[in-house]
Each structure stands twice: as C-alpha cells, then as structure tokens.
Amino acid sequence: MKAADWADGRLGIYGLAKSNLRKIFPDHWSFMLGEICLYSFIIIILTGVYLTLFFQPSMAETVYHGSYTPLNGIPMSEAYKSTLDISFDVRGGLLIRQIHHWAALVFIAGMFVHMFRVFFTGAFRKPREINWLFGFLLLVLGFFDGFLGYSLPDDLLSGTGVRFMEGAVLSTPVIGTYLVMFLYGGEFPGNDIIPRFFTIHVLLIPGIMLGLLAAHLILVFYHKHTQYAGPGRSEKNVVGMPLMPVYMAKAGGFFFLVFGVIAAISAIATINPIWQMGPYRPDQVSTGAQPDWYMGFAEGLIRAMPGWEIRFAGHTLVLGVFIPLALFGLILVVLALYPFVESWVTGDKREHHILDRPRNAPVRTAFGAAWITLYLVCMLGGGNDIVATHFHLSINDVTWFVRIAFFVLPVVVFIVVKRWCMGLQRKDKALALHGRESGNMVKLPHGEFTEAHIPLEPEQLYPLVSYDQQVPLKLPPAVDENGVKRKVSLNTKMRARMSAYYFGEKSQIPKPTVEEYKEIASGHGGHH
Amino acid sequence: MSQDEEMSSANNLPAEQDHGDGELAVKGDNPFADPGLPPHEHRRTDIDEKAANRAERQVAFLFLISMLATIGFIVSYYAIPKSQIVYIFLLGRVSALNFSLGLTLGVALFCIGAGAVQWARTLMSDVETPQERHPIEADKETREFVFEEFKAGAKDSAFGRRKLIRTTMFGALALVPLAGVVLLRDLGPLPGKKLMETNWAAGKRIINHNTGEPLKPSDIQVGSLTFAYPEGLSEEDEQFQEKIAKDALMLIRMRPEDIKDKTELDWSYEGIVAYSKICTHVGCPISLYEQQTHHVLCPCHQSTFDLSDGAKVIFGPAGHPLPQLKIHVGDDGFLAASQGFQEPVGPSYWERP
After folding, report:
1. Distance, in angstroms, between A268 CA and closest chain B CA?
2. Is-contact A386 A303, C-beta < 8 A?
3. Which of the residues A34, A137, B8, B343 has an alpha carbon 20 to 30 A from that of B219?
4. Which residues of chain B does A385 touch, with a Cβ-Cβ cutoff of 8 Å?
5. CA distance A440 to A80
C-alpha cells in the first residue's frame, strides 16, 4: 500500500488503474492472435540481446579453428565464425539462436493471421484505421528486420540474399548504382554491409517497432476491444471479463505458453543450420536457395517476371527486376489503404465496435481472399525449383503456371468467395426465418410430407439478424427541384458505382425482416 | 452543399441497430430484439468445493513440474558436454545439449503458462459483465473550446502577422537537415566506372578454380564445366571478395560446328568458350550445366542461357546474355584472355550502355 501511495504521489497511477485494472475484455480465440505477435516479439528481443553478447558483426577475414571440425582451417568472416561459435561453443547458444529465428517466423506468421482476423471481421473500421496502419507498419518492418537478421551470419545462403539485394537495388532507375555504393560502402560485398545491417537490425528497426507496438497497444486500450455480435452485446458496450485477474492470468500465462512452445520447437527442429552452408563467397552458391517464408512472395515475383530490359541513349531500364520490386511494395500498400477505400465507398462515419461476420461483407471478404491467393501464387513461384524437383515437373511449366495464375487465380477466387458468402447469407436467412431442421417428417392433411422446423431460440436468432446491412448510395436526381441540371462530380459517380457493387443485389442477400418472420411463424408464408 | 455531403447524408446507411444495451428487451412484439445477456452458467468448480480443490492441485502440480524442468535445464547445462551427439527417434542425430536444454526450458515455460491459464479458467470468475463505451469524438463544446484556445495561442505568437519571422524560420528549418544529408556522402564512393571493369585483360592467363593452376586446352573436356579466375588473383588479397564477385569465369567445350553464333565462334578456341559466371539477372553465380544442350541455369532464379548460341537467355528473368570473354592460347600453351570483357558483367543498371 505504502509503495503504491508513493508511486501515485509521483506518477498518478491510481487514475490510470481506476479505469484499467478491471477493464473488460471480450473473450474469443481469435483475439489471441495479436497476443502471439506481442509475445514472440518480446521473445525475439530477449534472445536477440543475448546473441549480441557473442556475435561479431564484422567482415574481417579470419580462419576457423573451433569445435565444428568440417570447417577447420577454412577462411571466413568474423560474423560467420562468431555464429559458428554461438552454435557450437557457447552452451545453449544454439538454442537461443534457434529460438530467436523460430520466434521471428512465428512473429511474422502471427502478424499475418492477426491482420486477416482484423480484416475479415471489419475491425479496421472507424475508429481503428490508424491502428490498422500501425499494425501494417509493424508487419513491413518485421519483414525487413527478418531479412536483415538472417543475412547477418554471412553464410553462403544469406550472402546470396544480400547479393540479390544488390541486384534489386541496382535496377532502380537513375540512382541505382549510387544507392548500391552508399549501401555497401563500395563494390559488393565490401566490408561494411554486415556491420551496417547489424545496427539497423538491432537498433534502428526494433526501436521504431517498439514505439509502434506501444502505440498499437495504447490504442487497443483506449478504443476498447471489438466484440462479436451476440445477446447483450452492442456498439455501446463491451462484454467480457476483467483484466485483473482473468486476463492477467490468461494473457500472462499465454506468454509462457508461446515461449514454451517455441523453445520446444527449437529443441527438436533445426532452423537455418548455417554450418552446413559454409562461408559466403560471391562465386559460389547452393541449389534450392530459398529466403525465409515471408519473403517467398517477393522471390516469386522476381522469378516469374520476364527479363524485360529497355535500352535507350546509352542507358538501361531494368524492368525485369524493377517491376517486381515495385510490385512488392504495391501489393503490400494495397493492404494498408483498404480501410480508407472502404470508408470512402460506404461514406460511413460512425464508430464500429461490433465485428462483421465475413459472410456479411462479401466484397470485402472476396477481396481479402483474392489478396491471399495472389500472395500464395507468388510464394509458390518463389519455390518454383522446389516444386519442380519434388513433383517432377518442368521448371518452365511451373513458372508459366505462376505467370498466368498471377492474373487469373485472384479473380477466380474473388468470384467464388463472393458467391460463397452470399450462399452462407441465404443459409443464415433460411435458418433465421424457418428455424433449424428437426428431422421429423410430418404428413399434412392433404397428404404432403414435409419436415418440421424448430424456430431458433432468441439468443441463437439474434446474432443472425442483428448485423448492419447497407443499401447502395443513390445519386441525387439528375435535375434539382428548380429544374436545373445537377453537376455530379466524377468522384461521386465512382462512389455510387462502387457502392452499388458493394451493396447491390448482386453482392448481398436482403436481411430477414420482422414481417417475414412473423408471416412465416403464423403459418401463412408457406409451410416449411 | 456539395454532392458528396448530399450523398453521405443520403439514406444509405442502416439505422443504428437496436442492440438493447445489454438490458433485457421486452419480449413479444419484436422477435428480433436483443434478448440480453444470458444468465451465467456455473462451472463445476463454482459449485463443487471438491472440484475447486482438485483444480487448485492441478495448477500447483503444473507449477511444480515447471520448477523441476528448470532444475533439469540447469543440470543439463553443466552435465552434458557440448559436443555430444545423440540419436533421437524421428529427429536423427542431434546435439544432446541443445535437445535437452530446449525441452526442459520449453516444459518449464509451458507449465507456468498452462498453470496460469488453468487457474483463470477454473477458479477465477467467468461471469461476463458489460462495460459502457464512450464515443471517442469530443462533444461540441470541447471542440469549440479547443479551437478557441488554438486561435488565441496562434494570435499570441503573432505567427500569421509577423511574416519575416515565419519565412526565416521555415528557411532555417528547411536548410538544417541538409547538414544530415551531407554527412551521408561518405557512406560509400561514387560508382564511377567501377561496375564496368573487371580484372580480365589481354594476355591474362586463366586459372583453374579447383587446382589454382593455369588451364591448358587439353584440361577442358567436351561436356565438362570448368570454373576459373584471372591470373594474379589470390584469396589472400584484401579485395578478393569484390574481385571474384565480378571476375568469376566458366569455361565449357563444344564441337566448334555446334557453336551457332558467329562472334562466339570467333572468340572461342577449338570449341572452348569462356563466359562470365555471374548471372545478368541479379548476380548469382551460375552453376548448373546441361551437357547435351549446352544450356546453363542459374540456381537462384532459374534464368537459362544457351552457351552454344551466344549465351542468349532462353528462359527465366534475366534480361540479356552472359558476357563472353575472348580467349586464345599463348606461346606458353596456356589459355589466356585476348582482351577484357567488352561489356559490364553481372546485373543490369541504369548507366549500363
């Protein structure tokens, strides 16, 4: 008590605790996904600090004489040697390296899945657009920090990635060569790139991420968590259990669960065995070179792209490399911008705290599924050699499949998912209006057989009928009340079109109404 | 009123749902009304003291296992030699220390988590309660007040009135970051002609990558792929990595009549052709060779070049052929370059002619 009073006198903690100690959080498994990201990030920081105690971010040449005999007497960089030492001569060093790498993979996978949960339930809507952007930046920074991190050991595989980066940066029109010289401190590979990557990897990017993460969490508290529709849940309340003690125990415990699982994985599944690759040399390469999974889609873009080069006036425009580089950014930025596109289409300025079921937003859901498809097609392209060798296919065929699927599959998936959502809406509607099937056949007086349906209980019915359904925007009449022709801006026309597409009859099934329900219940609306 | 405002005030948005604010709606007229929060269903541990005690023991048991696992971790750290390899079913031969440390740490952590979650699920209250939300936006009064305050502050500063201060301040703020930009200049040298040049020059002998000896034509058989570097390049060289990144060479031998490209034939020696090993896509070293077709393939992104036809790109993302090195046999009987590369090796860039 005394300590708390002391702290309150200096920090004013009671005011903060008053509103937060027993703050209510709703319970749903999908709300754990963000927690996985948070915890794996903490694990990465903890293990990363440990690794810096032993890692030498230097490209100075040395000769190996450590415990790993196959590389005895081989010249290599200090960076590679110290990574070998961490793996073989520091007790537990290999485990920490493995936890660090596994946690990074879990972190990025977690962010993806968390982001999809937020996307498909519409949790990015007002007031949470900014938090969506913070999350997006964390994802992108996570990508880059992951790439920088696995480049640090200076082994043959990661060096190939650093070489790839040189080629990619070189393709930048006009300033490519300058960027490369400034980045690498001269010609590739030079002596600077590992120390520079190290500083960016351990200081610059994690620092920014820590700030974004803090802001992300503060906003989660400030906005209060979203919740799924259900009895007693509304836009004006949040229903759940208090932070203290329930979520302190559950969330705090979950940190240990995540950490424990990652530690166990690191014990049984080797990741990035750099000792097998050997030190980096620019004239050597291993076959089947692959980046970490999250960079797979960038790799696919670069592999599937035809080698276009435009020569003019003594210059070369390296489109074959630069277009994939630009697409990489573009595909990601689409995600960042989506909430703003949707709010422009709907014109909705209200706060949303009740989550959508994905089926009730067919165009959004279809768009998200198409994006994931595009991502996966590119990822498949990034492993075209692996696919070809494992399934005994021609690499050329696999690549051509990726080139075509890049354009075709997202469209197909979009159409299928949208129809699927509408089908589910129809099913919900039938369930709401007619009730569930009882399995009892009934013979009617005039001889017809039919199955009796049992009406839903109110708490089952409510979530099926309580969602918001928009109607398309309508353009104002072409002439106003004075008979003067209205000028309708292009922007307005576009919005009306998009809105009709989003909310027109081809994209959603009209919600069941009370009248329909009553009519059917009273037996006049058919006998099902 | 603009068209846009008119449209957003249009009646396209659904009415606010009658969510009932967590209170029981009056049943009857509206079957779709919010039935309100369902009553709390008691768990076994809420009503049965025995079950609650059992849950307590379960949680304590998990915490106990965690303690044991941590002790196991410390024991493993000291007891297991770091070089010991063990065979584990399904995993194969793995480091005993890593396996043991990882599993004990995993169990120690996992059991703390499992204990805490079990505690929360069985013994802490699971009654769901509603808490009110408040709109994020400020009310009108606050909004007006803030704008008034801002205006008062802005007026006080005379920012709008004293233009000289404003202009010079912007000028100073715009200039000062230039100091930071200038500081970045020494990150690296200017590109100059660096990317255009390699160490190959007329008369430089071709050294076998594997043996370190100069190559003779008889060393290269039809159907083999030989890697090489220029004479004078040594691994001891401080710049070795930068040099080999551009100088790496590959040689193959074909029957001269199989060479389709005229220049290629002219630059070859008795069917031996020398090409840059660095892929023109993004710079991976090319290492896969198909004897029958004389195609080489870059293992990174699968660009495929036809070495019997001027190393033309026949598949994949590379944008131009591999540069060829003109070779001959010197008076000493060793293969040597007749001239340097006539175009830059490696990936393309803006200044590449």
Report:
1. 6
2. no
3. B343
4. 299, 302
5. 72
Is the Cβ pair A287, B119 closer than 8 Å? no
Q: How far apart, in whole angstroms, are the C-alpha atoms of residue B310 and residue A180?
A: 29
Domain termination residue (choose one: A220, A247, A282) = A282
DSSP state of A69: G
Distance from CA of B317 to the nearest CA of A (A): 4
Name the pairing type of β-strands A354-355 and A227-228: parallel
Q: What is the pLDDT of residues A37-85, one digit of tens each?
A: 999 999 999 999 999 999 999 999 999 999 999 999 999 999 999 999 9
**CATH code where residue A269 lies:** 1.20.810.10
Interchain CB distance below 8 Å, A318 and B184: no
Distance CA A351, CA A361 (A): 17
Q: How far is CA A249 from CA A238, B110, B119, B125, in A?
A: 20, 14, 8, 12
Best of B185, B300, B345 to disrupt the A interface by mutation (most A CBs within 10 Å)? B300
What is the number of structural domains in chain A? 2
Q: Are B64 and B74 in contact (CB under 8 A)?
A: no
Compute the count of residue pairs across chains A and B with CB atoms less than 8 Å apart.
413
User: Could you report the per-residue pLDDT of A262-304, keeping only the tens digit for each?
Assistant: 999 999 999 999 999 999 999 988 877 888 999 999 999 999 9
Which DSSP helix (H) or strand (E) runs through B165?
helix B163-175
* Last residue in a domain, options B122, B138, B159: B122
**Partner residue facing A236 (CB), from B19, B82, B242:** B19
Residue B288 near residue A287 (C-beta atoms within 8 A): yes
How many angstroms separate the CA of residue B168 from the nearest CA in chain A?
A: 32
Q: Which of A282, A304, A325 is the last residue of a domain?
A: A282
Distances (CA, A) of A284 to B18, B58, B208: 68, 56, 15
Helical axes A93-120 vs A78-88, angle rounded to 10°: 100
| A268:B103 CB<8 A | yes
Pick from B122, B152, B170: which residue ends a domain? B122
Of A489, A346, A348, the residue nearest B2 (C-alpha): A489
Residue-wise pLDDT for B213-258, tens only, equals 999 999 998 888 999 999 999 888 889 999 999 999 999 999 999 9
B98 touches chain A (CB under 8 A): yes
Residue A507: give the domain boundaries: 429-521
Residues of A numbered 195-214 whose beta carbons fall under 8 angstroms of chain B's beta carbons: which are they?
Answer: none
Where do we find the tokens 């089908």? A423
Taken as a whole, chain B contains a residue count of 353
Side-chain-side CA neighbours of A407 within 13 Å: the count stands at 5
CB contact under 8 Å between B10 and A98, yes or no, is no
What 3-state class would DSSP assign to B230?
strand
CA distance B118 to B112: 10
- Closest approach of B169 to chain A, Cα-based (Å): 29
Range of the domain at B115: 44-122
**Residues contacting residue A115 through CB under 8 Å, at least 6 positions apart:** A135, A136, A139, A335
